[in-house]
Write a structure and sequence with these properties.
The chain is an all-alpha fold. It is built from 6 helices and no strands. 24% of the residues are buried.
Length: 119
Amino acid sequence: MQPIPMLGLLPYIYLMYQYNSYRAYAIFLNGMLYHYNDKNLTLRYYDILCNAFIGYYSFCTTRQPTFRAGYVGFVSFLLNNLFFYKFKINEKHSYIIHVLFTQWPIGYLLFNEVAHELV
């Protein structure tokens, strides 16, 4: 179980209930499922695949100035995995990087998208 990344998913609850965002539901539920069962590779790849589809959908439907947050999240995810698996950085540091530079920027991007859909 990975409690730090699970806590990093909490802002998605706001998007789920305030804006009834199906993408936030998917990210939150898949993230909680994987980060609770972090040894299951099938859940890991399913979470990554779902997030990739959500990111692709967001990229194709919305081009906004805050989209840089999506690039930060994507590049951070790739670099964090590289550093964790190749250079063996500390697991807790990897989790903190994942929350601050992957989960939250993508949550910020999703927040801006759903907030502008209502306008």
